[in-house]
Amino acid sequence: MRIRSVELREIHLRLRERFEISTGGWDERRILLLKLQGESGVAWSECVAAEAPNYSYETPETAWHILTEYVLPAVVGEEFEDPEAVLDPVSWIRGHPMALATLEMGAWGLKAAEAGVSLASLLGGARSAVPVGVSVGLKGTDDDLLRTVEERLTEGYKKIKLKIKPGRDVDMVSKVRGAFPEASLMADANSSYTLDDLGVLKELDGLDLMMVEQPLAYDDLRDHALLQAELQTPICLDESIRGPGDARLALELGSGRIINIKPGRVGGFSSSVKIHDLCAAAEIPVWCGGMLEAGVGRAYNLALASLPNFVLPGDISESRRYWAEDIVDPEFVMEDGMMAVPDGPGIGVRVREDRVEELTARQWSKSD
Ligand code: OSB
Ligand code: MG
């Protein structure tokens, strides 16, 4: 495959409702979209960097800088054996996985488009639909949270993830558990506790949660291992798994029993598949996380989630849970808690280029 030209855009897209986690919140997304033009096909991809460095150090600003200054100029006009090789010219770059993943995933999308096959089948996906869940942000009041959870359960989501933080944890989660005794519930702390909070974390342990996600520091594996030994509830690692190396170490240390794979966080699909395979061999289930993606990113997440060891429902919700109007056609919908994996060629959904044009705040391009 050869990349003839690249186009990077930043679009601004308002969330239907504010989304809040322990380290900050979102009312609007600033999303970078990349369009790769190959010899015989086109592919769009999406950068998942958050607006502020409250999830990782990357932001749309750092990703724009890394992509336009270093990554994209190094690949325009070049020929690549396979999608994995597209990052070879920039293997000297340290960090910045979300910026790099934007190109790497786009290369997978382009290969699928040019071969006339679906991204899921190119990856080795095993299912035509996957179970999905929803991540519910912190709310101002418990009543508001209970209302939202009820609505999401009625819609059919197979897993409800509650965002927690110190002071909004045991009482709040107990109320939700009390109101919905049978619901598949989990909690995500986004690194807001330390081992000094063992008492609180042990109380959460009694609430029949499927898992507790990333309770401790974003760069820690050791304390998570100590904590896991104290809890019945499986720990799910998110922030602290930056690639296959971290996954291997986490499995060795026993830092958790479940891994949330977000392809942007780990530098792309090649790395995601390696983590998937490592976990499958160790009988550690994985699921696909989300970063409040628009429709392009969601298409990639669904393709990844069709791999066999993605056995738990992902944070892959319907378009309307995020946006008044998505940027792809058709929008993503759910039926009985399942979402169909696009099976058309490439990413399997059409990018609404007219709408993207209207939403564009800045644009950069280069051709050979
Ligand atoms: O920790 O999983 C997280 C969104 C932004 C940053 C971090 C996280 C999240 C989510 C949202 O939980 C999942 C989604 O995209 O629906
Ligand atoms: Mg998380």
Task: Summarize the topology.
Elements lengths: L4 E17 L2 E14 L4 E6 L12 H16 L21 H19 L3 H5 L5 E3 L2 E3 L5 H14 L4 E4 L6 H10 L5 E4 L9 H7 L7 E2 L8 H9 L4 E3 L6 H10 L4 E4 L7 H13 L4 E3 L6 H11 L13 H4 L5 E2 L8 E3 L9 E2 L1 H7 E8 L1
Helix pairs in contact: 1-2, 4-5, 8-9
The protein binds 2-succinylbenzoate and magnesium ion.
**Average pLDDT for all residues:** 98
Total number of β-strand segments? 15
Inertia-based shape = globular
| Rounded radius of gyration (Å) | 20 Å
Q: What are the distinct ligands in this entry? A: 2-succinylbenzoate, magnesium ion
Number of helices: 12
**Major β-sheet annotation:** 7 strands, parallel
Helical residue percent band? 25-40%
How much strand content do the residues show? Answer: 15-25%
Class by helix and strand content? Answer: alpha/beta
Uncertain stretches of 5 or more adjacent residues: none
Biggest sheet strand order reads: 5-6-7-8-9-10-11
N- to C-terminal distance: 14 Å
List key phrases describing it.
single chain, 368 residues, alpha/beta, seven-stranded parallel beta sheet, 12 helices, 15 strands, 34% helix, globular
